[in-house]
Fold nicotinamidase.
Amino acid sequence: MRPDSDALIVIDVQNDFCEGGALAVPGGSDVVAPINALMAEFPVVVLSQDWHPADHASFASQHPGRTPFQMIDMPYGPQVLWPDHCVQVSRGADFHPDLDADRAQMIVRKGFRREIDSYSAFFENDHVTPTGLDGYLRARGVTRLTFVGLALDFCVQFSAVDAAQAGFEAEVRQDLCRAIDLDGSLAGARAAMAAAGVALI
Ligand code: VGL
Ligand code: ZN
C-alpha cells in the first residue's frame, strides 16, 4: 500500500466512453481490469463522473445546424460539440459495470450545469469554477496524484494539468488511459501535460 499522501484519480470510466457507448473511446473498456488492480495500492481512491443534463450546451443536438465534433465559441472559450453523452441517470452515465466503483471513497460529478462543460475534475471549462475536489484532497492530506481513465486527451489531460497547477505532484499512467484523438488532440494533450510538469508514465 502506498502512503496516505497518494491518491488514485479515475477519470470517467463510464459506459458512454466505452465500446457501444455514445462517445466511445477506442479501447475504453481495456483499462477497467488493470485500474481495478491498481486501486488496491492506493489508500485514497476518487472517481470522476461526467454528469450532464439532457440539454447540456456541449451537445451538438442543442445547436441547430451543428454536428458533433465541430467547434463553437462559448462565453468561456472554444468548445467541441459532442454527441449527447453521460446524461444524468442514464445507463450511459453509469460507471462501466466491471469497474470496482465501490472501492472509491469519493465520486466527483462534473458538467452538471447546462451552460458550461467541465473536462477537468477540478475546474469547469471556465477554469475558475471549482468542483470541490481540490479541497477534499487537501483536507485528507493528499499531495501526490496518479491519473488513469478516459479520455486521455480531454478529461484526463485537463484534470492532470489543473492538479499540477494547483501544486499537486501529478502523474498520468498512459497505459491505463485511452484517447479520442480528434485533430491531433492527443499530441497536443501530451505537450500540454509535459509543459505543466505532469509526469507521463
Ligand atoms: C470527456 C468529452 C466530453 C472525457 C467528457 O471524459 O474525456 N470528453 N465529455
Ligand atoms: Zn462530457
